Amino acid sequence: MQIIFSDIDGTLLNQEHQVTPATARAIKACVDKGLYFVPVSARMPEAIRPIIDEIGIPSPIIAYNGALIQAQDGTVVDSKIMAMPEVLSVCHTIEKLGQDLAWNIYSYKAWYSSQQAHNLVHNEEVVVGLKSQIADLDQLASLKEAHKVLVMCPPERTEQVLQALKEDYPDLSIAKSLPHLIEVMATGIDKGQAVKALADYY
Question: Are 146 and 107 a contacting pair, CB within 8 Å?
């Protein structure tokens, strides 16, 4: 059995955030030969599935940089989550750091965003083709678990916010993914391990 793993943004998608017809044809030809094609991304599942549907193939997915793995029928192969008390604490810290920042909480298919810095959230909605659910933290207190907190910052503030979060939450994995984005996740999440877990499943 052979599996092709591919990043999405900047790899599978072009600068217009689209799969070109030539790329789609090449992927379908591989799948028709019996290969699996698996997108691997920091995106949530609902921002990956439409891309696969557009190509017109069945596909497992690795979402949230490996924190959530789904078989092609949607079965959860593996899920690594953060406890909500810590997630809410991170988001409270973000709110205290300034109104020009925005937190986003991702849990399985759901995406919750803050009302702060909503222009940053809107830009992300355009890129992934989805609408977030605007919420305040009190509304999310009953949420059981989350896979990722995405912090949106003006680029000139990202390093300052990154260091503040790393100091306050040393037990979490915190990294800058783009000049204006910081990803906060559970420790021990690794794309390589996710690839192996999916390969073992099949």
Answer: yes
Mean pLDDT of the residues in the chain: 92
Residue 202 pLDDT more than 80? Answer: no
* 102-136 pLDDT per residue, tens: 999 999 999 999 988 788 899 899 989 999 999 99
| Distance, CA of 99 to CA of 62 (rounded, Å) | 32
Six token digits for residue 32: 């028709």
What's the 3-state SS for the chain?
Answer: CCEEEEEHHHHHCCCCCCCCHHHHHHHHHHHHCCCEEEEECCCCHHHCHHHHHHHCCCCCEEEHHHCEEECCCCCEEEECCEEHHHHHHHHHHHHHHCCCCEEEEEECCEEEECCCCHHHHHHHHHHHCCCCEECCHHHHCCCCEECEEEEECCHHHHHHHHHHHHHHCCCCEEEEEECCEEEEECCCCCHHHHHHHHHHHC
pTM of the model: 0.90
CA distance 42 to 200: 21
Residue pair 107/145 in contact (Cβ under 8 Å)? The answer is yes
